[in-house]
Write a structure and sequence with these properties.
The protein is α+β, with helices and mostly antiparallel strands. The protein has helices spanning about 10-20, 60-70, 115-125, 135; strands at about 5-10, 25-30, 35-40, 45, 50-60, 70-85, 95-110, 140-155.
């Protein structure tokens, strides 16, 4: 990382940033040689020291075709944005917190929904709500096993 002064290495701090984010951008390897990027709602769970990100969506589409060809993916999420004006154009900056990483995706079976869907709901403050079995049967659930991640932030200065 070029800006070591902004680097975050503490895992819990990374997880805290992820908890404040409301969108995860997932990048897949596109069939035309270009990355395929999509913003998704997400949930998180840790198990045996491994972080998993969960996503849900319609049961078919481009992302599933791409994942079937290559399950590797990168992700990015950011939050705490604030423009900070400076004395001239070059003095302006942006405060932020961000996490990027990569891993491998797998499509979960409907039987695994009770593991994944609560993680999504908890991330947005809706824990404990029931799920419609009909809805679950028509929903695809993806799980990304995070293999590597980094984080950085530019936070307000304490001058």
């Amino acid at each position: 990382m070029r800006r070591k002064d902004r680097e975050i290495t503490d895992r819990q701090e990374m997880l805290d940033i992820m908890g404040r984010c409301d969108v995860c951008r997932l990048a897949l390897n596109g069939s035309d040689g270009y990355p395929y990027l999509l913003p998704l709602n997400f949930g998180m769970r840790e198990a045996d020291g491994v972080l998993y990100l969960y996503f849900h969506g319609a049961a078919e589409g481009t992302k599933y075709d791409l994942i079937a060809r290559d399950c590797r993916a990168s992700f990015e999420m950011d939050c705490s944005h604030r423009v900070v004006a400076g004395p001239d154009a070059c003095g302006w900056t942006m405060e932020y917190e961000s996490v990027i990483g990569r891993g491998r995706l797998e499509r979960l079976s409907p039987a695994q929904a009770p593991e994944a869907l609560p993680a999504l709901m908890e991330h947005y403050g809706g824990s404990g709500l029931p799920f419609s079995e009909t809805w679950v049967a028509h929903t695809a659930i993806l799980r990304l096993r995070v293999e590597q991640m980094t984080a950085k932030a530019q936070r307000p200065r304490s001058d």
